[in-house]
Amino acid sequence: xxxxxxxxxxxxxCDWIEIMPRPHRVASVALxxxxxxxxxxxxxxxPSGDPSASSTPASTSSSAGPAPSETGTATATATxxxxxxxxxxxxxxxxxxxxxxxxxxxxxxxxxxxxxxVAGEKTGSFSNNLVVVSVPGxxxxxxxxxxxxxxxxxxxxxxxxxxxxxxxxxxxAAGFGAAFEQQGVKVLxxxxxxxxGDRVYLxxxxxxxxxxxxxxxxxxxxxxxxxxx
Length: 229
Known about the structure:
This protein is an alpha+beta fold and 229 residues long. The protein has 4 helices and 13 strands. The protein has helices at 30-33, 70-74, 139-155, 212-225; strands at 16-20, 35-39, 55-57, 85-86, 92-94, 101-102, 113-118, 129-136, 159-168, 171-182, 185-196, 199-208, 227-228. Strand 10 and strand 11 (185-196) form a beta hairpin. Residues 44-97 are annotated as: Disordered.
């Protein structure tokens, strides 16, 4: 697959990152229009329920980084329902849904990456996930990013859908959705742009289409815990 990064040898079947489709290297709109696929498999002694597919946005200046080590995968943080975690910038905290884990260390070097949260169980052969990336900007930047994201996805032939506005700790975030098929799985990716301070926070929730309502309910639960720091 063009742009794929994978390990060779016996470990090549586990825990690599691929880019689908090719990344757009034009502006930070690539955060919304590129998709990283995080693929894992069970290993002897590893906990069950590890995510095996997740869809996350890519960076404007970064392709998929090196594959994570066996150790890095095994020690990825499991997050309970009452445990708050900070984004990498330290500008906000959230409480992930029960059973979700922080998989940020499996994405490699991505400019502006705040966090990657992945559900521990698959639904419809897909692990629901949330990616948060921040970029410099303001309310106009947020509008521009959403407009560019829609244009880029239309050019890729993806079906755009409506996404309701969300409140992110007092900030109104506009958004949209994109439906597509990935490795035989029907996926719905919904993205929102939340301007706060001198940055815009881009949140992308990806789920199987059949689990879209449940994923949104979990997303709303997470947003209710969001606090700016």
